[in-house]
Records
---
Amino acid sequence: MSKQQIHKRLSSDYVKFILNEYSAKRLKAKEAISKLGIGRTRFYQLFAEYENDTANFNVNYYRSESTRKINPEIEKSILAELEFEKTNIIENKDVPTKRYNYSYIKKLLKDKYNQEISVDTIINRAKDNGYHLGKQPKKIHDREVITNYTGELVQHDSSHHLFAPNGKIKWYLITSLDDYSRKLLYADFWLRESSFAHILALQDIILANGIPHAYYADQHRIFRYVKNRDKNNPWIQYSKFTDDIDPQWKKVLKTLNIEPVYALSPQAKGKIERPYGWLQDHLVRTFVRENITDINDAKKVLKCEVSDYNNQRIHSTTKEIPNIRFRKAIREGKSVFREFKLEHPHKSVKDIFCLRATRVVDSYRRISFQNNTFQLSGVLPKREVELSIYPDEKTGKTEVRFWYNNNFIDSHIVKNDDLPIVHF
């Protein structure tokens, strides 16, 4: 028996011929059923229709009503959310996204109205009611890095956007992605971008997962010193050539023996740009709908979106949920994350994930740094000391830790406002 409907397989004339042969007793029911490829119940239904009106009998199928009808309440919800998108997002010049997101609306209908509907149905309603902009051109990424292990490469970047249009202030979104699993290892909003913000992202990832083999970043001055471009950088000397100076972020990588890899173009960072696009789109829509303007409220929404991305969504390239792929790789030994351990001479994570500087002790055993004077003991005049600088935005204070010949000698607390370079 064929699974395809009879009107799609056989002509009405052929079916009438078989039924006529059965009626004239030239075919047994079993033979007629076999030739028509249908079940016994369906056969006798067709034979009854044939006998009732032989002249007009046919097997053509006609729908009695439109299949495009859905529950009126669901349709009302779809059109209401599409209209909200059009008025508050698509046509709002302050919102940094100009396309409809039908998958987002599908999830919204389930969470907000407890209504289940397919994306295709939403798209059909959008097209029928003027809420469709057509296909958008896809970005072409001209270079991708292929990895075989989790921890082999972490892609790292930041994005500066008006994520919360009603707040009228742009925020920085700093994000890190494991290249193999596509899991977002770090994502957080910042009011301003600084070297130390990126260093704290390193700290968060490494304390939670271990030390990766390499980091993939763009050529922003925070990640790489480039001669001529960075001549006004307060941390360096202009006479140095490209890569002769290690920016603060890169110094942390070298301390942990992590290889820095630099993208040759923005298009080369396609794997981190795609999650950025997804996050930005979802975040902006949620912030507009919930009228979020405070960065702390935004951080809560971001946490939920990252969890959804890592634990619910099947990645279009790997065909796996990122966190499942990440954990599976670790179980199967397909990980090159190294265990993080404090090793000599470091006393604290503040000696690793920090800003660094050096100064020479004067004749009074003092040093001057950013208009602050520190009295030191345990070190002779004219000797060079190393400074580990660890700001804390929550307390508004910075701990400055002093080292001489790989020995910790002292620490001082300074207000962040009195040490402006920590914001660089």
Note: DSSP finds twelve helices and eleven strands in the chain.
---
Amino acid sequence: MITFIRKIWKNGFFPILSVNIISKVIPFFQSLIVIRLLAKEDYGIWSYTSNLLQWALLFSGFGVASGVLQYVAENDNKDEQQKVVVWGLLWGILINICISIGLIIVALFVPLPIKGVKELLLSLSFFPIISIVYNVGQSYNRAILLNNLFSATSILYFISIFIFTILGANLLGLTGLVIARYVGLIVTVVYILYNHRNIKLINILFKGINIRYAKSFLKFSFICCLTYMTGQILYLIDVFLIGIIIKNPSIIATYKAATLIPFSINIVSLSIMMFVAPYIIKNRENTQFIKIYIKKYFWYLLLLNMTIGALLIIFHKQVIELVFGARYYDMATPFIILVIGAAIAGVFRIPSQNILGNMRKIKINFYIALFAGVVNIILDIYLIISFGINGAAISTLMIMVLTSILSTMYLNHYLKEN
């Protein structure tokens, strides 16, 4: 065990783990403070607006950030690596400009079920254009194994957002939250561009890129986008449909609060998969190598996720009272259901789907996610109408179990056959 810890420390796992902890802990405490500062209805309005923005960001760059990670990690030529990141960024910005225009159209002309959402959505409509620079830059840092820079950039982003969010919510309410999003992101993007100022952007653009290579890159990126999009529906559809069916910002606030801790307990699972991704990509044809990685990490993931999940369920009343306060006692049942689902996903779904993606088996991830997405929508509509937010939580649990079974079964089958 000590040898294992020393090895992953040397190879840069703990900077990635620290980032994932910070990426969950800071937004978590940030949300708690915002919950305390805002009226429950205002928090519901903010949650629903953020949900709509996240729907738009599912299409961000049509997946070029994933393409940059894959194609840069596969290539050891520095010039070719920089060419991929520059062209990926260019395509991503063009696509996200279109996404921003789409958000403006929705905010201006589409009837939305929650009052006050239109104005917030319109003010956040330019967020995708700036965020693509952050996403592509971080993918490039991971691909060339600049784990310390990746960590520093992520920490800067989350701390900036945290500081400006608290100040903004306290001084200007919902308007302050919008300003905080932009300021925190812009500060981080400037830091990324400064650290990669050696990339000769103009020269690379004039050199052009091989058409066949570009098509392969865009196709891979787009399939990753579809896979990510269908997978993330699991986390977004609940709040979206609760808003449409129940149309009560206070209930939206309750369910959103119930998701905060469960959706944050997969820190270790996500950290491990981010850490091993470049190594699996480089050895994606070596199934024996991948089998060793799976065996090495599975029991650690099982022990950690089950322990955390059990503690949260046993002490759920104390956790809710301490963290959220008396206004959110009605979140107990969905909270417990979501904890169970998140613990299962952390052991099976997250590792399996990430490994399949790193091995370029992205189509199977897409098919699983698409099937699960359709089932999720059907279950959500029926269960929310029948059981309210408890139904939404049950639907999420069922989909987490389903996707865990399907992705793990396929990965095991593939590794046995090759």
Note: The chain has a mean pLDDT of 85.
---
Amino acid sequence: MHLFAFVCVGLYTVMSATVGVRLIKRAIPNRHVPEILMGTAYLLAPGLGYPMVVIGSALPERTAGLLMFCAGQVLIVMGCTCFFFFNARVFRPGVVYAQAAAALGAILLAIAASEITRGQLALGAGSIGLASVSAASVTMLTVLGLAYGWTAYEGFRHNRMMRRRAAVGLGDSVVANRFLLWAIAGSVQFVSDLVAAHSLQMGGNMTVDVGPVLATALAGVCNSALLVLIFMPPARYVRWLLRDPQGALAPS
């Protein structure tokens, strides 16, 4: 089970870094802020930050491990902050409460990461047993879960809008499908984060217990496939969408 989870999460890490680099390279020449935000989010958080935290926790040399762990936490906060503001900018442009929600999420995440880092500096791998570190981890996972829930809601909302436009001949099947896949990806990650948060809240260990490990593994493999279809769709898939626009527009 744990080997399967490791492979799935590793696959998601590689795909996230690949997509992140591609988005940044494509966006920088034209200064497209949404693509830069999303590319940076994928590159820094799942692409670099998360694996650095995992590896840093496992390194036998404590100083090097702590440096990598701390750097990973900083990258996770930076990447997730970009993700929060991507949601606000793309889905709710000019809406004050959306910007406020993104800022609040970033602040809560930074506070939680600081407490997790403090525990790691004090106790190393055993810090997860501290009530404050466990609470900080629950907070981080809950904030991330809510952000992905926001993503899922906006994806389904925009997919519904595209279906309405299609009824009068204005729908774009490729764009509509991306909204749908984006919503599915957000839903999957939302469930995974909340399962892990619930496990911690109940006194479990999300790195060992079957429920959170399985949820993390399935989210990793599922979202790896979705990243390909959203950002690097095969030509055959795009041709299918264009031939079958109603299938592309249909909600899950």
Note: The mean pLDDT is 87.
---
Amino acid sequence: MEDQSPLHEDPPYRTRIDILFARDAPKAVLLRRGPKRHFHLIEWDLKTDRFTYGQWMKASELRLCDLSPDGGKLVYWAAQYHASAPRHIHAARHLRRPAPSGGAEYDPLLALPTVKSKRGRRKVPRYLRGGSSAARSRNSLKARKNEGVWTAISTPPFFSALAIWPSFGHWTGGGVFTGDKSLILFEPVDGLVADANVPVPGSFRIASFDSLPRTGKGFETSAYNPARKPNSHQAELAGHLQNAGTRWVEWVTDRSGDLLFACDGCIYRLADWKKIAPEALLSSATLLADLRSLHFAKLVPPHSAMQW
């Protein structure tokens, strides 16, 4: 598809830019956010600096979890809250408030408890009750009802899901790639039944974190996100950019000798940056894309995006 040209207007909100760099391919996926509940997916060809503008989604929360090593598939987690959602979906986002009658305060987390725990009468997720879910029979597994919080796998830059795994509120959700065709979901075994828009091929392996040996090291993502674990040098470079006049520095990274960074809703590249004085990093960089004034638009995914 063709690139869209950003409008050159400064919107009255902060434009946030998250990113995942593919491990084995010169590709990256950008998640542009702004206004608050508007999310836009963009694919970046790092060889040509071509940006492919994909779909938008309106959501309460949305995060990029991981990108496959070849950059061909994306796993993301999303939450869409609405007035008709079940009470426990809203519970994590509601504060305690006085009852309309002036009586005791009502806390939705205390409503209709299922299991009593040391932390109070909060609901405990199913995979924490009655032992490991890995020991349960797979024949008894059923698709979990989607109540507004889920993990999905898609073809960037499109949100349209090949498959969706409903989450148990905020207790579960997300995943990491261990290969181009292998995924670990942060769901118990009884949460692996997908609502598949396209049947999951047998060659694509999906495992539960609950069924794998516990090493205590956690699961590392395949893709690289410089904003998640910035080192001291990146923090220093971000400080130089802020001293040069930027307001918000989203991330900074050095790839193949070029400095790539996002600040104030824009993407920049600076070659041979080590030869540039710190105060001149911003003025010497090349503006690759201005994402500030993009606006929500519906986009139907092509047939190629709905293939495993």
Note: The radius of gyration is 22 Å.
